[in-house]
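Before we proceed, please read the two lines closing this message. Report back on whether the C-alpha cells fit the sequence:
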Amino acid sequence: MSVEKVKNHLEFLGFDVALASEDGPEQGTLLAKHPIRWNIRITVKPDWMFLDASVVLDPKSINFGAANRQNAGVGPVKVSLDDDGDLYCALFYIGAYDRQNLGYALDALETGITMALEPFYNESR
C-alpha cells in the first residue's frame, strides 16, 4: 500500500498531511489535519491501514457507560476513553489502497466519531 497514494488522497480532500516519522515505529504513519473534519492519524502498511483520532472532552462530560454502549454495536469504529478522559476512536481497514474504499473508511470514522460524541453531551451519568 502506497503511503504516497494515501497522502495524495487526503490532500485532495483538504487535509494538511505530514509524515509522522521517516523511520522507527511511526514509519508509514500520516498525521492529517483538516479545518472542518476531525484530525486523524493513519498508519499505512502493505495490506492494511489503521485510522484513529482522539477528541478532547470536557472533563464533566466523561461517561464510561456511553463509551461501553457505543462498542456494543457492530459498527466498524471502536471507542474508548484514554487515561486523560479523551475520546479515542479507531477503525481497522483491511486490504490494499483503493480510492473508493478509503473514502468509505474515512466517512465511517467521521460518522463514528460524531455518533460517539453525542451521548457524552446528551446523557445523564
